[in-house]
Design brief:
The complex is a heterodimer.
Chain A lengths: L8 H9 L2 H10 L2 E3 L8 H20 L9 H10 L4 H29 L7 H23 L4 H12 L8 H9 L6 H32 L15 E3 H26 L29 H9 L9 H14 L4 H4 L11 H22 L15 H26 L25 H10 L1
Antiparallel strand pairs in A: 1-2
Helix pairs in contact in A: 3-5, 3-9, 4-5, 5-6, 5-10, 6-7, 6-9, 11-12, 11-14, 11-15, 14-15
Chain B lengths: L3 H15 L22 H13 L22 H9 L2 E3 L11 E3 L13 H7 L18 H9 L16 E2 L7 E2 L20 H16 L3 H30 L4
Antiparallel strand pairs in B: 1-2, 3-4
Helix pairs in contact in B: 2-6, 5-6
Classes of the chains: A mainly alpha, B mainly alpha.
Chain lengths: 438, 250
Amino acid sequence: MEKKQFDNKLVQWVDHRLPVFSYMNAEYNEFPMPKNLNYFWNFGALATVVLVTMIVTGILLAMQYTPHTTLAFGSIERIMRDVNYGWLIRYIHANGASMFFIVVYIHIFRGLYYGSYKAPRELLWMLGVVILLLMMATAFMGYVLPWGQMSYWGAQVITDFFTAIPIIGNPLTEWLRGDFVIDNATLNRFFSLHYLLPFVIVGVVALHVIALHVHGSNNPDGIDIKEPQDTIPFNPYFTAKDSVGLGVFLIIFAFFVFFAPNYLGHPDNYIEANPLATPAHIVPEWYFLPFYAILRSITFDIFFLEAKLLGVIAMGAAVMILLIVPWLDTSKVRSARYRPLYRIFFWVLLVDCIILGIVGVKSPSDLVFPGISWFDYKTLGLIGTIYYFGHFLFLMPVLGLIETPRPLPTSISKPVISLSSGGGSAPIGAAAAKKEKA
Amino acid sequence: MCRLILAVVFVFFAGNSMAAGPLKHEAQDWSWNGIFGTYDRAQLQRGLQVYKEVCSGCHALKYVAFRNLVDLGYSKQGIRAFAKTFDVKNAEPNEEGETFTRPGRVTDYFPSPFPNEQAARASNNGAYPPNLSLMVEARPHGADYLYALLTGYKDPPKGMKISEGMNYNSAYPGHQIAMSAPLDEGAVEYTDGTKATVRQMATDVTAFLAWTAEPNLEERKSMGLKVMLFLFAFLVILIAMKRRTWADVH
């Protein structure tokens, strides 16, 4: 029976010894997918495409880049001016980092909305958080490599976080930098690690996918697959649907690469690093801004803990808290579609993160509304930070206990009467997608 | 080092109070703006003339080589002759082990006016004239800022005290700049007969520096248009494929 799966003799021979063909067939061809997935389920595939793009362009850039403080900036300019299509490869890589974070943030919020982190997918979710952490480290070190002003001063600020750790802070920071200051030793190890970590990400992505394929994808209704009619094979249905998402994504990506390649960057990074001249504003890349706002919002000591240490702890906790989300959420219902209260607070959380992003780019002392003298961005940042942690530590556990969920459909193919408002013969997926956009 | 985060916060405060008065940089109608924008060759050539005759005395252009000037529409012979007008320090010493200076070659980069930062500061009242190759990329509002700076030399507002050796400039952050007004009416005599007003020269040299900052801009935009056309057509096909594939799902 197994032998009959492939016609080609060579394929049969290989598969009998190394079952790559039956693996691909089982996991990517026939793999059963819930048929009601909407376009928010594109983003995992998109993230994979960006990861591969980053690795390919990164390897090409590394062939021309020189990791030395006196040569790095000039080698980037050589890539931009003299290397064939060097400008294209570098702009794809630089904007690709931003695209990666956009895609991954949407992917994470998708998970939060539809409860994709709930049993039995807790480890799948936690592996995703590990990928996010690795991405952040990789992006930070990659941004240092061009050795511009923001590279240098960003590295200075970020590595300085570690000095906040009591007792071992200073020696630890020196050990990480490989010097008393950010210098050639730092640049060299950042280059080495920036090349290494993406492959670690590939490994964790593989585990993420393995964990995903144990119980399969969650779906917009957040209910388990009950009968064969609930699923359709991955290929051709989701290869086709992911392709449409990819097509749209590539247009957005290409727009930035070709028509606004420096829009998401900072002009100061076109000035070579100068340890003697601090830029007027040290601002991280946009994807770190909410975390930067959380870091800066803590400006007071609590008992013996200094404000700086507390800020660093808060920033770290803002990511780490995602690891325990599966246990903070007490609701048995996965999808926010059937959780009238959680659905509202999900959107409030999203708005809160955007507000924190705005706070991250503003001066803490600037007023949010001119005329209200006590309400500056520092205060707004503190409110945003408190709300952020409040969402996970208070709202998530409490909402699950007090909320009355709406009735769940009995199965993916048989939705509850209240879900579809008309068009009885329309495919479930389409009806669900319409509902989502309304 | 430990107080760096506080220092950053301080800089935010300082940055706020430093901005005495608004900085002006109106958006100009540059030829390379927009998705179809291209450089104006005649304008770039005039800008090169302004750079050579006015700016190059103090400012380096270290990422631009003479060979790159073919982009401006010059012939190879013309560039060869132009390069010869510069004295370039040879990278290698001669057979006696002495360094020497020779006329420029097409493969040379624009020579820097000063051997090092200290020499530059010593000749410029302590200020360091920056390398201009990337200036348009390295400043917020890029070309608009540069144009505003070059045309922003005015009398200081009443009551504003200008420090010794500094000049008032309406576009410069803090409004006090070490560089004195570089462009005077008729500072260059344009070979194409264009009248060398301050605004004309400021426009031309800004355009030239936009090109030095991003010499591949035209290639990028024209490739971008083709890529976009392809991607939109491709998306239509992908949508059609998806619809057909999903037609039988109920």
